[in-house]
Amino acid sequence: MSRRSIFNTIAKKASHAAGTPWVFCLALGIVILWACSGPLFGFNDTWQLAINTGTTIVTFLMVFLIQHTQNADTTALHLKLDELIRVTRKADNKLLNMEELDERELEELRRTYEALAERAAKRRSGG
Question: Tens digits of per-residue pLDDT, 46-59?
């Protein structure tokens, strides 16, 4: 198994796990435990630093794991849509590389499709 596929597997599992109620409850439990331990440590700077450091590290690592998973999902979605466009006879093939267009080109396409939608709405309403 390559390093990339090992990372991919870990990232997907971690990203999925992070969104479960169990992990949320675990995180909430840690925060409650930390808050309740405040009087024991006299609410000192080290006590505050512990939660700040922990949450910063977890957040930092999760950003990369979630971004990796999001990138993979977005790529898969683009490929699926590209295949649907490719096999549809009347589809506009210039949409196949739409994610590569600049803002101006995307705005032009948006206006084109907005106008098509308005015409279709008028036909449906009989006007």
Answer: 999 999 999 999 99
Residue 90 neighbours by CB distance under 10 Å: 4
Separation CA 58–CA 47 (nearest Å)? 17
Q: What per-residue confidence (pLDDT) applies to 91?
A: 81
Contact 113, 95 (CB under 8 A): no
> pLDDT band at residue 4, thresholds of 50, 70 and 90?
confident
**Residue 47 buriedness (CB in 10 A; 0-12 / 13-18 / 19+):** middle
Contact 93, 36 (CB under 8 A): no
Q: What is the DSSP string of 46-74?
A: HHHHHHHHHHHHHHHHHHHHHHHHHHHHH
Distance of CA 38 to the CA centre of its chain: 35
